[in-house]
C-alpha cells in the first residue's frame, strides 16, 4: 500500500481500540486459562505479568514504533530500515499463516457450542465426556471448522471488517462485564475457593523453565507480537498519538481480559473435578469442558451461556479476520494477484493445513509429530519456536543494528516523554536476547526429549 493511501486511525482511542481488537481473542479467553491451569496457576500468572510489563512492553513499543517510523508493514519496514534484515519481515509473516488454520479449528468449536446453547442443549454440553466425544468425531468438527473459516473468508472477501469490528466494539465491554459476573458467580460454587487460591497464589516450587516459556509464548500470542501485526498497526498510527501510553493501555486491556477469563474457568475446574493434575492439565479443551458445567448450574444459565459464546465468537472473528487479512495482503503483494484470488488461495490453503489439526483428536490421533497432536504441534511451532526467534531477532535488530535511540526518537515525537526509556533499553539490549536464547535452547531440547527440566 502506498503511503498516500494509508488511512490513519482517528486519534488515540481509535488506535488503542483497533489494536486491542486484534489482540483480544481466543488467546485471552481460551488459551490463557488452560495454560495457567496447566503450568502451576499463580506462578504462571505472576511470570506472565512480569513478562508483560517488561518484555511485552518493550517489544510492543518497538514494533509499533518501527511501523510508525517507516509507514510500512513488516516486510517493507525491515527492508527500509536495513536491507540485510528484510528476512525478519518474511519470517514474521509466516507466523499468522501457521496460526490462522488452527485458530479456525478452535473458532469452529466455539461456533458449535454457541449453536448448542442457542438451541437449548445446555445439559448435553455439560455432560462428562461430551467435549472429547465431539472433537474425536470425523465429520462434525470439520463442518464447524469450515463454517467458521468460511465466515472469516466472507468478511475478508467483501471487505466488511469494519462492520464486524463495530459490533465487536460494543460487545467487548459487555463481554468483560459478563465474564466478571460469571467469575464471581463461579466463586460461590463449593470447592471453587481452592481453585481461586491455586490461580492467585504463586507456588514457587512449581516454577520451571517451562512455565517461563509457556508464559512467553502466550504473551506473544495474546498481544499479537512477533508476527508483524503490531508493525502494521503502527504504520497507521498518527504522529501526535502518544505511543507509550497507548502500549500500556493495550497491555492492560489484554491482560485484564485474560486474567478474568482465568478467574472464570480455573475455580470451575476445582469445583467440578478437583485440583487433580489430569483436570488441570486438560489442555485446549479446558474452556469447553468447564464452562458449560458452570452455566448449567446457573439461573438463566442457558441465556448467559448463549450470550457468552456469541461474544467469544465475535472476539475470535475479529482476530481471525485480521489474521487472514494479513496473510491475504502479503500473498496479494508478493504474487501480484487480485485480492479475490488471493483470498481464495489463502482460504483453501488454510483449510488444507487446518484439517489435520481438526482431525488430530479423532481419526488421526495416532499420528504424532515429536509426540504432539497436530493442533498442539502447530501451536508449539508458532508460539514456542517461531515467535521467540522473531522476538529475538527484533530485539537484536533494535538493540544493536538500528540502535534503541531510533525507537526512542519515534516514541518521543512531538515532544512526548518516554517514561520507561531505561527499562526499554535494558530489556531490548540485554534481558530479552539472553532470556530468549536460554529459553529456546531448553525448549527445543525438551521437545525432543533430550533432557527434561
Ligand atoms: N492475539 C490474538 C488472540 O489473543 C490472536 C492472534 C495471534 C492474532 N496473532 C494474531 C490476532 C494476529 C490478529 C492478528 O486471540
Describe the structure in your own words:
- The protein is mainly alpha-helical and 453 residues long.
- It has helices at 11-23, 26-38, 42-70, 74-81, 86-118, 122-125, 130-135, 140-158, 161-187, 192-200, 209-222, 229-235, 243-273, 277-280, 286-296, 301-335, 339-359, 374-401, 404-411, 421-447.
- Residues 22-23, 25-28, 96, 99, 221-222, 224, 227, 229, 319, 322-323 line the site of tryptophan.
Brief rundown of the structure:
The chain is mainly alpha-helical. Helices cover 77% and strands 0% of the residues.
Q: Can you lay out the helices and strands and say which pair or pack?
A:
Blueprint: H1 11-23, H2 26-38, H3 42-70, H4 74-81, H5 86-118, H6 122-125, H7 130-135, H8 140-158, H9 161-187, H10 192-200, H11 209-222, H12 229-235, H13 243-273, H14 277-280, H15 286-296, H16 301-335, H17 339-359, H18 374-401, H19 404-411, H20 421-447
Helix pairs in contact: 1-13, 2-11, 2-13, 3-10, 3-11, 3-12, 3-13, 3-19, 3-20, 4-5, 5-8, 5-16, 5-17, 5-18, 8-16, 8-17, 9-13, 9-16, 10-13, 11-18, 11-20, 13-15, 15-16, 16-17, 17-18, 18-20
Bound molecules: tryptophan.
List its traits.
453 residues, mainly alpha, disordered N terminus
Contiguous helical run count: 20
Helix residue percentage: over 70%
Care to count the β-strands? Answer: 0
Q: Beta-sheet strand percentage? A: under 5%
How far do the termini sit from each other? 47 Å
> What characterizes the major β-sheet?
none
So what's the overall shape? Answer: globular
The ligands bound in this entry are: tryptophan
